[in-house]
Amino acid sequence: MSTKDPHRLPHEKGFHISWDQIHRDSRALAWRLDGQGPDEGAWRAVVAITRGGMAPAMIVSRELDIRTVDTISVKSYHHQAQGQAQVLKAPDAGLMGDGTGILVIDDLVDSGKTLELVREMYPNAHFATVYAKPKGRPMVDTFITEVSQDTWIFFPWDMALQYVEPYRGTD
């Protein structure tokens, strides 16, 4: 059993992802999914969970030559606090059906609440994320990298390139 260090700052257990890294990891996800669809290995469509799943979904759809791409907007975070997941925008109902042949892509599964909600809507879809944390891992079918539950992932779309003063020490 681990106890949290009250002196540790939130960024100290951070995993910083660059654009190059998310691109490489998303391509690796595509390679893992290639030929795994239910229609002679093919997938009918990609659905990105917005907003974090959009970049990985674009890369996966390109790599697998999937031209039908839609989004589902699920909000479960307010700043860095996770709350109740709610669907703000659903994908085309005619496309989705029960999810058969659909790849649902997100950047990360954390607690699994977002994927649980979407899986209830589309039980036969295939859920893939680039990164997975242990609590959410049962909700995802395919992922590339697992990180510890207490790691905060800093994605490139959340970051700015600028000088930052050190938190400790000045010399």
What are the SSEs and their pairings?
Elements (H helix, E strand, L loop, with lengths): L13 E3 L2 H15 L11 E6 L3 H10 L5 E10 L2 E9 L3 H4 L5 E8 L3 H9 L4 E7 L9 E5 L5 E3 L17
**CATH-derived architecture:** 3-Layer(aba) Sandwich
The percent of residues in helical segments reads 10-25%
Head-to-tail CA distance between termini: 36 Å
Strand arrangement, major sheet: 4-3-2-5-6-7
Global morphology:
globular
Q: How are helices and strands ordered from N to C? A: EHEHEEHEHEEE
Helix/strand structural class = alpha/beta
- Count of DSSP strands: 8
Radius of gyration: 17 Å
Average pLDDT, all residues:
90
SS element count, helices = 4
Which CATH first-tier class would you pick?
A: Alpha Beta
Summarize the structure.
With 171 residues, the chain is an alpha/beta fold.
Task: Walk me through this protein's architecture.
With 171 residues, this protein is an alpha/beta fold. The protein has 4 helices and 8 strands. The protein has helices spanning 19-33, 54-63, 93-96, 113-121, and strands spanning 14-16, 45-50, 69-78, 81-89, 102-109, 126-132, 142-146, 152-154. It is globular and about 60 Å long.
Features:
171 residues; alpha/beta; Rossmann fold; two-stranded parallel ribbon; 8 strands; globular; Xanthine-guanine phosphoribosyltransferase
